[in-house]
User: Fold Signal recognition particle receptor subunit beta, a GTPase from Hydrogenobacter hydrogenophilus.
Amino acid sequence: MRELRILYHGLGMAGKTTNLEKLKEIYKDRVYDRIHQQTAEGRTVYLDLLMLKFHTCVQGVDVIVSLFTTPGQKRFKVLRPWLFGHTSSVVFVFDSSRDIQENMESFYEIKDIISINRIVVQANKRDVPNAVPLEIIKETFNSMPVIPAVAKDGIGVLETLKEAIKTALKNEEGAVRSS
Assistant:
């Protein structure tokens, strides 16, 4: 059994857990495990985990894709370096409803820990009025794949996961772990 670990990171309420919830719906017959605690306001407490089991051709074995989210609240910042250091790839969930500087402060947390070639950017909340223009997001993250999304509607969620898996497998030696 092999495992890919993909971490979803971004500001609080950016849509990280929403991505996992939509993936749980899409892959309901492949859910291996789900751990999620949240506050009454819908904020993630500690972390969120969704494990999906796939059969794939990665060295001819089954692969479990573990999807984690970081809690967006600043009080959990101390936990993030450990989570970042144990991942195959990272999905940075850019909240298009908030200004670019606020998003970049969250991005800078991973910039020096994770190689840029292991990061996928999801430009979420593309449906909100006055969303940060997609062209600006693409320019800002010009060396990384940028996937437009409306996670609450499932738009761009599957495309983001596929890109994150592809990104993880590009650097298979550090990305795939034996369980």
